[in-house]
Write a structure and sequence with these properties.
single chain, Arc Repressor Mutant, subunit A, Tetracycline Repressor, domain 2, 2 domains
Length: 232
């Protein structure tokens, strides 16, 4: 009798341990340089073991990204919608600062798994409470997340910090920058905290304004008005 062929890979490895090791390797190499082979080498297993546990490189990447989402706690829905979205946004920022080279992975997939879906549902609920029409909630949610993740990734990469002296000199010496050059003191003192909080306010104010604009007008009474007969 032929023995059933066993899949290649080390079945005794623990999923959670593999995930943490893969996250550490991705943070070392960056998303673009990450591979199953490099992860397996760092972990000390065969690449087939990762395929066995996660199905593919995409499966492993989504699992790592969902591991980052697990660090974010969905706020209590009893709180106002703006407060909840602000809380989640600040938590995403903290994750980006902790895992700056892995964080861009969150922008690669529409959803990364169960942890992400829980947060998505909370965001959908917050947008519904803001007054966004139901049919537009998916589009607004996608745009909100794209802006938030881009803001967090930009800060993690150094985009929203103070420019270095070389950049400041380039701004000062470039002819024709009639708007930027008078603002050099403000540019020199750019504060990442202020950049983040300012743009979160802009995003949430924009959602609120859009919800007011998109709100359908109150329905009019379709019954014809009864004519009032004047007294003779």
């Amino acid at each position: 009798m032929l023995k059933k062929k066993q899949p290649r890979g080390q079945r005794g490895l623990d999923d959670a341990a593999l995930l943490e090791a893969a996250l550490a390797e991705m943070e070392r190499t960056g998303v673009e340089n990450f591979s199953l082979r490099s992860a397996a080498r760092a972990i000390g297993c065969d690449p087939a073991a990762l395929i066995y546990h996660f199905g593919s490189r995409e499966g492993l990447e989504r699992a790592v990204a969902d591991r980052l989402h697990a660090a974010i706690v969905a706020p209590d829905r009893a709180h106002p919608w703006r407060e909840r979205l602000t809380s989640m946004a600040r938590q995403y920022r903290a994750v980006a600062q902790t895992y700056p080279r892995t964080f861009p992975l969150l922008m690669r997939y529409w959803t990364t798994g169960p942890q992400d879906l829980v947060l998505c549902d909370d965001t959908f609920a917050a947008l519904a409470e803001s007054g966004i029409p139901a049919a537009l909630i998916p589009a607004v949610e996608c745009g909100f997340y794209a802006a938030l993740l881009g803001l967090c990734a930009g800060e993690a990469g150094g985009l929203t910090g103070r420019p270095n002296p070389t950049v400041m000199k380039e701004i000062a010496d470039t002819p024709g920058l009639t708007t930027m050059q008078p603002l050099l003191p403000a540019i020199r003192n750019l504060d990442p905290d202020a950049v983040f909080e300012t743009h979160m306010t802009i995003l949430l104010d924009g959602i609120e304004a859009f919800a007011r604009k998109a709100k359908p007008p109150p329905a009019r009474n379709s019954r014809p008005e009864t004519a009032v007969r004047k007294k003779p």
